[in-house]
Amino acid sequence: MFEGGYLGQYLRINLKDKDIEVEEVAPEWQQKYLGGRGLAARFYYEEIESDTEPLSRENKLIFFTGPLTGAPGPATTKIGAATKSPETRQYLCTNSGGEFGPHLKKAGYDGIILEDKADKPSYILIKDDQIEIRDAEELWGKTTFEVNEILQEEVQQPEQILSCGPAAENGVVCSCLQIGDRSLGRGGTGAVLASKNVKAIAVEGSGEVPVSEPDKFKQAAREAISYVRDSKENHTRYGTAQYTGPMNEFGAYPTRNFQTGVFEGVDTIRAEHMKENYFKKNKACHRCPVACAQYCEVQEGKYQGAKSDPEYETIGTLGGMCGVDNFAAIVRGNELCDELGIDTMSVGAIIALAMELYEKGEITPEETGGLKLEFGNDEAMVKMIEKIAYREGLGDKLAEGMLQLAEEMPEHEDIMMHVKGLPLAAYDPRAFYGNALTYGTSSRGACHNVGGWSIRAELLKEEHDRFAVAGKGQLLKSIQDTRGYIDSLGICTVVRSGYGFTAEPEGRALEYLTGYNFTPELMEIGERVYTLERLILNREGRYREDDMLPGRLRKEKLPEGQAEGHVISDDIYNQMLDEYFSARGWDDEGRPTRERLKELDIAHLQ
Amino acid sequence: MEILVKFFLNYQEEAGIDEKIIKIPGDKAKLEQVYSCLERSTDFNPEKVQKEGIVLLNERVVNNRKPKKVEVKDGDNISFMPMVSGG
């Protein structure tokens, strides 16, 4: 059916039996779910039961690329994954850039499904049709940096190695998977891989991704490059760190565990300061002309020698959320997270929560081992990352994540800033009302990406004024559906407009690649992916009440800044949620209706 | 009248300053006059912000493409920042 983009096959690896099968991907599934997030969700629906324990041998790790992954166009870098999350105890989708996805395609596979559990520590090496499950005794206990060093002889570059760190081996629920400096960050994929006794997967492919009409695709790629070079100049110059100053200006910068939206220490953690004092060089994912990663190095002081590329969300969670205004500490914290394999966002959020509890006297100095876990204490923030990764002292408790803490300390649930167990990103929805729906209805918990990044639309379009209530439901549906298909294509969202991948898709790049004109169907595919994810959530017991926001956002007004006095009251939120459910064709409890499922051609999945 | 102008990111780099108080005769003026004043006193390029940036007047987004229609008054503050886009 397809003349390019897809290889049409994936690896199913049973770790217990060491059985490696090459299986076909049904073209009908590719047509309906594209690839990446969509296809991984479809396999998840089919293969992971609602009562599966995240760290049990019954859970699976499902990786899928998209048709554009590895294709000769800009930023064709992404690989998606789905699994049952130990952090949220529900469906999780996540993705990462780097070279792992492109090389998997070049080796001849669209995806990998890992099943069961290896009898002893292992790693997987994929070189075209040579696939081995190897002994990893030497790798166990090592950091991701050390794993890369040991395995670098097997592949050309560390960005072709997917690995987990000590945090994953210790079952930390927000441990991640690293691909070089990039991460499958959220939800605890690292712990799932480690629970299968797998430390890493290294891949090297020598083939090429087939292209249906190479010359025409090349021309479309050239146009995309030219567009993104012009329009994403600030991404190249500052990376996502560029949002720090503006978000603070908008009163939307989460500070000290969302106690306010304005951080008085922002001047020393904003992008302009980073650029002047820490920036060393840009780094790029596969074939990306933007190269948004801002590789920084600390030249002096107590964090001298620290090197990493902090993104906006990391600066927000390790910085403003923890009241830390020392950018060098953020560089070191980010480096530690990459090294130990832990999600910068969740760990920053949970440290911020612990700081507030410490200041309230609910966590004692005895519990912290004498560490003064106060807002603004950069050394405490850095130290706590290690303590969580290695489950030392208080770190052992925090390693279990927000859901567990909420069960143990229900009296403090209002200040636990998560939805469905996933901590919020670094935007305060009281300053952008649409962002409240972003967090509430994101299918993986409070995620700014999967849930739809509404801030640009809320700033620029009068009809979507950031403090307006009406219209936000429809807006979020559109942004989420767009994201649903983007995440299934295999490209980075930063370059998507260059290909014409917007809420009104245009352009023919995908047709030139695959031989099939997907463009008119893309928004419907995005909606189908989102709706399928909701079916999975319903099956796992998630309904309207699980879409609610933390108490602080519903009860406490922002005390200062542009959004002073604003709060997402239950009345405001329920109005937006009702409109959102209606736009989606879901009932009052957030269940897709039979009619909408029929329209999306997935009624058989209900 | 005095107006506080703040520059973010590339606009800060181009103007060479992060903020500036500008003085314009009278009690009221148009955004267009702010642009002219900045062009004279800094390396700031108003055309660029009109084409691709965001202008906030007292922290609310205004239509930067119609500077003749946007009124400013004594004590206002104006911020210039690039268009935010997801990533």
Summarize the structure.
The complex is a heterodimer of chains A (606) and B (87). Helices cover 38% and strands 13% of the residues of chain A.
Descriptive report:
The complex is a heterodimer of chains A (606) and B (87). With 606 residues, chain A is α+β, with helices and mostly antiparallel strands. Helices cover 38% and strands 13% of the residues of chain A. In chain A, the strands form 4 sheets. Chain A has a 6-stranded mixed β-sheet, with helices on both faces. Chain A has a 6-stranded mixed β-sheet with strand order 8-7-12-9-10-11, with helices on both faces. In chain A, strands 13-14-15 form a 3-stranded antiparallel β-sheet. In chain A, strand 16 (418-419) and strand 17 form a beta hairpin. In chain A, helix 2 crosses helix 19 (472-489) and helix 2 (36-47) packs parallel to helix 22 (522-539). Chain A is globular, with a radius of gyration of 22 Å. The two termini of chain A are 27 Å apart. The model of chain A has no long low-confidence stretch (mean pLDDT 97). Chain B has one domain: Beta-grasp domain (Ubiquitin-like (UB roll), Roll). In chain B, the strands form 2 sheets. Chain B has a 5-stranded mixed β-sheet. A two-stranded antiparallel ribbon of chain B has the order 3-6. Chain B is of the alpha+beta class. In chain B, 29% of the residues lie in helices and 36% in strands. Chain B starts with a strand and ends in a 5-residue tail after the last strand. The mean pLDDT of chain B is 87. Chain B has helices at 9-15, 31-41, 46-52; strands at residues 2-7, 19-23, 28-30, 53-57, 60-62, 71-73, 77-82. Chains A and B meet through helix 8, helix 9 and helix 18 of A and helix 1 and strand 7 of B.
Low-confidence stretches of chain A: none
The gross shape of chain B turns out to be: globular
How many beta-strand runs of chain B? 7
CATH superfamily of chain B: Beta-grasp domain
> Oligomeric status of the shown chains?
heterodimer
N-C termini distance of chain B? 40 Å
SSE run of chain B = EHEEHHEEEE
**CATH fold assignment of the largest domain in chain A:** Aldehyde Ferredoxin Oxidoreductase,  A, domain 1
Q: What class, by secondary structure content of chain A?
A: alpha+beta
The overall pLDDT average of chain B reads 87
